[in-house]
Design a protein that fits this description.
Layout (H helix, E strand, L loop, with lengths): L3 H15 L8 H11 L5 H11 L3 H13 L6 E8 L7 H5 L6 E4 L3 H11 L15 E14 L5 E4 L9 H4 L2 E4 L5 E8 L3 E9 L3 E3 L2 E3 L2 E6 L6 H17 L14 E2 L4 E2 L16 E2 L2 E8 L7 H12 L5 E12 L3 E13 L19 E6 L3 E2 L2 E2 L7 E7 L18
Parallel strand pairs: 1-2
Antiparallel strand pairs: 1-3, 3-16, 4-5, 5-13, 6-7, 7-10, 8-9, 11-12, 14-15, 15-16, 17-20, 18-19
InterPro entries: Serpin_sf, Serpin_sf_1
Length: 411
């Protein structure tokens, strides 16, 4: 199953709820987390989640598994499920998560922050949720990209943006397309009318004859078009640029000469063998840092936590869902990262008397080293269970001085 259609559909809903303020988001990061939860859902909850995902839950999960287990060379990706204590009711669902999904006990806040930093190439410093004693489980996805343009931009005075642009007086310099290596065009779209388009290619990764790249597409509509419609048009144009390159492109010879807020079209006298069309573009550098509350109705996280709760016999779990995202677009490259997190929260357990033991090996004791050899949890060879080494410890030694300090080179 191609994830393009469902993710584009989800992106429109997410950006519409975010609104028209300056922001960066990763609808894909949110969609992946919901897709991982999908197989846990049943009945009406499953139908609701499939409506949000835009796909059958099992097929969406398979797509998420393929994306996470075989990540794009230019897009680092990660996913995780942490539980305060292993929840038996989730065992079958947990076992079907992607092989790359990290699972285990719920880390403390510094460890979660470190996970976010490591999985986003240092671009996101803090995990977007705070865990407390009442947190039962946390799920997260992370995406990160840091690329250099195959051909860097040139630089131009900001007044080249034209008198209709307020940015022309606010900025000193902007980016100008180089004479080759970038692509510009005017596209007709259903949602935003005719739009200006610029596409910059990242320097690709080439391995064993396979080339993996990233195309960053900028789309501008007239100022009166609402942001959600421009974003929807941008997804349409970007998809076409990678799969149907000529679709929707307008010829300059079909458009009127003169000035608009989006472009200037003029005629130049030169030597040419045909109706040649020349394009250039001016764009500002930009950066964004955003935090999005994903608990709004329509984004699917309420349904996802209900699915997990129903599986655990606790359908009314409280929850938090948040995405932190950052991006920077400049002369030499583009970088972006997002961490999407979902936490299921239960009331604090009642106070109770518990017992704890600290075991001390303070006199002679035995040690046996036994080999294990299993496949899918089943013994798979003559080594399994075979004692390889055994010892009686009666003469302890002092901790070596070299072991007194932490070893950063060891896990």
């Amino acid at each position: 199953m191609s994830s393009t259609g469902p993710v584009v559909r989800y992106a429109e809903q997410m950006h519409r709820l975010i609104g028209g303020e300056h922001h960066i988001a990763s609808p894909l990061g949110a969609w992946l987390l919901l897709a991982l939860v999908g197989p846990a859902a049943a009945g009406g909850t499953r139908a609701e989640l499939e409506e949000v995902l835009g796909a059958d839950a099992d097929r969406a999960a398979a797509t998420a598994r393929a994306l996470l287990d075989t990540p794009h060379p230019l897009v680092a990706s990660a996913s995780a499920l942490w539980e305060r204590a292993a929840i038996e009711a989730l065992a079958q669902w947990r076992a079907a998560l992607p092989e790359s999904t990290e699972t285990g006990p719920l880390p403390d806040q510094p460890a979660l922050d470190a996970w976010a930093r490591e999985r986003t190439l240092g671009m996101i410093e803090k995990f977007p949720l705070t865990v407390g004693p009442e947190t039962l489980l946390v799920m997260a996805t992370a995406l990160a990209t840091r690329v250099a343009w195959a051909t860097p931009f040139q630089v131009s005075p900001a007044d080249a943006l034209g008198p209709a642009s307020a940015w022309a007086s606010e900025l000193r310099q902007v980016l100008r397309t180089p004479w080759h290596g970038h692509t510009c065009w005017i596209a007709g779209t259903a949602r935003a009318g005719d739009v200006a388009v610029h596409a910059a290619e990242a320097r690709p990764e080439r391995v064993d004859g396979r080339e993996s790249g990233l195309l960053v597409v900028s789309v501008a509509a007239t100022p009166d078009v609402p942001a959600p419609d421009v974003l929807a048009a941008a997804h349409e144009v970007a998809t076409n640029a990678t799969t149907f390159p000529g679709r929707g492109r307008r010829s300059l010879y079909d458009l009127p000469l003169g000035e608009t807020p989006l472009w200037t079209i003029r005629e130049e006298h030169t030597r040419s063998f045909g109706r040649e069309e020349l394009f250039s573009a001016l764009l500002p550098c930009w950066k964004a840092e955003s935090r999005h509350d994903l608990t709004a109705k329509g984004l699917g996280f309420d349904t996802a936590v209900r699915a997990l709760g129903e599986l655990m016999g606790a359908p009314d779990l409280a929850y938090e869902a948040t995405q932190a995202a950052v991006a920077r677009y400049g002369r030499y490259g583009f970088e972006a990262a997002a961490v999407t997190a979902l936490a299921a929260v239960a009331g604090l357990p009642p106070e109770a008397v518990v017992r704890a033991a600290e075991l001390r090996f303070g006199h002679p004791y035995a040690v046996v080293a036994v080999a294990t050899d299993t496949r899918d949890g089943v013994p798979a060879g003559p080594w399994h269970g075979l004692p390889v080494y055994s010892a009686w410890v009666a003469r302890p030694e002092e901790l070596p001085a070299a072991d007194l300090s932490d070893r950063p080179d060891l896990p």
